[in-house]
Amino acid sequence: MRTKALNKQDAKTAANYLRDWAAYLESLSSSAIFAVTSDGIQCTVQLPTGDQFAVDGPDVFEAIKNLVIELPGKMGAPPVADTINQKSAVPTRTSPPSKHGAEEIMRHQEETLHKSSLTKSRQETIGVTSKKSLHATVINLAVQRNESVAVVARELVLEGFRSLEKQMLTISPTKLLETYEKKARDYDGDATEQWMVRIDKKLAIKLKLTAKEYEKSASQVVAACLSNALVPHYAMAPHSATAELTAALATLALIKGPQVTPLAAKVGLGKQRSLLSRILSGGVEAPGIILDRLATALGHSRSALQGAMRDNFSNRSIPAFKAENGKPQIESRPMQWEAAVKELALPSTEEAQLLSLKD
C-alpha cells in the first residue's frame, strides 16, 4: 500500500489531537477509581460531560487497556481540542497593583472569564477530592436546574473563584482560604470521593497559580470554591439525614449502563441486571439481605438507600400513552419481590434461588 505524508498543517493538527488525548489520559491517572468485582477489576472515570464511564477486565492491565480502547467511542473528539495557532499565555508575576488598579484588572478578568464561559473555549480537567455530600449537593443543584453536572460544577467553580479573588483584596488570603476550606469540611459524613470538573483553561491557570502561592493543591482550591459558591443556593446546611439522602440519590443516579451488571452479581442477583435496575428505581421491594449488601457495596446506610429508592419511585417519569380499554394502569406502589421474580420467567432453579432471598 502506497502512503503519502500529510501536509505540514494537517500533521500539526494530528499532533495536537494526540497531545490532547495524552494529556487527558494523564489527568485520569489521578482520578480513576478501581474496584474489585466478582469478574475481576472495574475502572471508573468521569467523562467531561459529567457522566461516569466504567469498564471491566480480568486484571488491572486489561481493565486499563479496555478503557483506552472504548473511551474514544464514548467521547468522539479529543477532550481538549486546541486550535493550531492558539497559545496559552501564562501570566507573569509583577509588583502588586494599587487597590483601584487591582479592582480594574479583576473586573476585566471577570468579564473575560464570563465571556469565555459562554463560548466554546479550551477547557482543562481538574481532579477533585471532596466529601460525597458536597458532590451530591452539586448533583442535586444540577437536577433542580435541569442542567448537566459538568456545567453546574464549572459555573460554581468560576463563581467561587471570583468571590475568592475579590475578597482577597481586603481579607488575608490565607485566612480566607481556611474559611472556604472549612465550608467544604463542614459537609456531612466522612466518606470522600474523587471526581472531576472541567473549567476554562485561563481560569485553570489562575486557580493553579493561586494554589501554588498559598501551598494548596488545585483540588483543595476547587473544593473550597465549590463549597463557597453553593452557600447562596442553600439558605442553611442540610441536616445530616437530608444530606445522606441526597448523597444516596446521587449515587443511585450514577449506576447505569455497564455499572449495573457487576453490582448485580456482587449483591447476589447473578445476571439479573434489569431486576437490580428496578430495585434502584424503587419499582421493586428488595429483600433486606439485598438492601444490606447494596449498603455495603455503595457506602450508604440501608435507611438512606431505602429513602432514595422511595424518592426515585415517587418522582419516576410516567410515559404518555393511550389506553385501549379504560384508563391506563399506573403502579401506585412498588412490586412485591415474589411477583417481580416470577415475572422474569426464569428456570426453576434460578427462580427458587432468588425467592429464597426473601426475608
Detailed description of the structure:
It is a single chain. This protein has 359 residues and is mainly alpha-helical. The chain is built from 15 helices and 5 strands. It has helices at 8-28, 60-75, 99-118, 132-145, 149-167, 173-185, 201-213, 218-230, 240-254, 260-266, 273-280, 288-298, 302-314, 337-343, 348-355; strands spanning 33-37, 40-46, 52-57, 123-131, 192-200. The protein has a 3-stranded antiparallel sheet, with helices on both faces. Strand 1 (33-37) and strand 2 (40-46) form a beta hairpin.
Q: Return the average pLDDT rounded to an integer.
A: 77
DSSP helix count?
15
Read across the widest sheet, the strand sequence of neighbours is 1-2-3
User: What radius of gyration results from the CA coordinates?
Assistant: 24 Å
Shape: globular
Total beta strands:
5
Strand content: 5-15%
Structural class: mainly alpha
Protein name: Phage protein
Short description:
By secondary structure, the protein is mainly alpha-helical. The protein has helices at 8-28, 60-75, 99-118, 132-145, 149-167, 173-185, 201-213, 218-230, 240-254, 260-266, 273-280, 288-298, 302-314, 337-343, 348-355; strands spanning 33-37, 40-46, 52-57, 123-131, 192-200. The protein folds into 3 domains: 13-75, no CATH class; 103-238, no CATH class; 255-316 and 331-355, no CATH class.
Could you list some keywords that capture this structure?
359 residues; mainly alpha; 3 domains; three-stranded antiparallel β-sheet; two-stranded antiparallel ribbon; 15 helices; 5 strands; 10% strand; globular
Layout of secondary structure:
Layout: H1 8-28, E1 33-37, E2 40-46, E3 52-57, H2 60-75, H3 99-118, E4 123-131, H4 132-145, H5 149-167, H6 173-185, E5 192-200, H7 201-213, H8 218-230, H9 240-254, H10 260-266, H11 273-280, H12 288-298, H13 302-314, H14 337-343, H15 348-355
Antiparallel strand pairs: 1-2, 2-3, 4-5
Helix pairs in contact: 3-5, 4-5, 4-9, 5-8, 6-8, 7-8, 9-13, 10-11
Protein name: Phage protein
Organism: Pseudomonas synxantha
